[in-house]
Amino acid sequence: MKTFSLIEKAFFLKKVRLFSELDFELLLAIAEKLHDDDYDASEQVFTHGQVANRIYFIAAGSVQLFDEKMRPLVELHAEQYFGDESLFNESQRTYSAQCKTDSMLLTLSRSHLLSIISECPSVAVCLLQLYATALPCRFSKTGVLTL
C-alpha cells in the first residue's frame, strides 16, 4: 500500500472522530508523530494480554477484534480506531486485533499521545467527551453509580 504524506495524514486525522474538532495546524503536529504500518489480510496486529503502547487508526482496510477466546467482537473500517482504552492505565490488551483485509494502519505511541495531550489539552477533552458518551453509566435505586 502507498504511504501517506504529512498533509494526507493530517486530512485523514480530520475525518477521525477523536481529532475532528482540532485545528489543521495541530493535526499536522500530530500527523508528524504517526507511524504507518502495512498489514496483510489475516495478519495479527496484537494479541490478548500484550502490553498496550499504541493506538491504531485504520487508514485503509478492515480489522476484526476478538475476545480472549477468539470470538469476534466487532469489525472496524477506515477512519475508525482501536487500542486506545489501555493506553492510559498501562494495562494489558483485553482483546486481540487481526486484519480482515490488507490494511494500512497509522499508529501513535503512548509517549507521543501523552506528549500531544500535554501540549494541547483539547485532545484530552475530546478523549474525555468520547468516553463519557460511550460509557453505559446509570444510577441504581440506591443512588450509587453502576457500570
What does this structure look like?
This protein is of the alpha+beta class. It has a single domain, classed as Sandwich (Jelly Rolls), CATH 2.60.120. It contains four helices and ten strands; from the N terminus they run ααββββββββααββ. Strand 9 and strand 10 form a beta hairpin. The N and C termini lie far apart (41 Å).
Secondary structure: elements and pairs:
Layout: H1 6-15, H2 24-32, E1 35-39, E2 44-46, E3 54-60, E4 62-66, E5 72-77, E6 81-82, E7 96-99, E8 103-109, H3 110-119, H4 121-134, E9 138-139, E10 145-146
Helix pairs in contact: 1-2, 3-4
Structural class determined from secondary elements = alpha+beta
The largest sheet, given as strand count, sense and whether it forms a barrel, is: 4 strands, antiparallel
What does the average pLDDT come to? 85
How many domain units?
1
Which percent range fits the helix content?
25-40%
CATH superfamily: Jelly Rolls
- How much strand? 25-35%
Widest sheet: strand order? 1-8-3-6
For the termini, the CA-CA separation is: 41 Å
H/E element order: HHEEEEEEEEHHEE
The total count of strands amounts to 10
Using only C-alpha atoms, the radius of gyration works out to: 16 Å
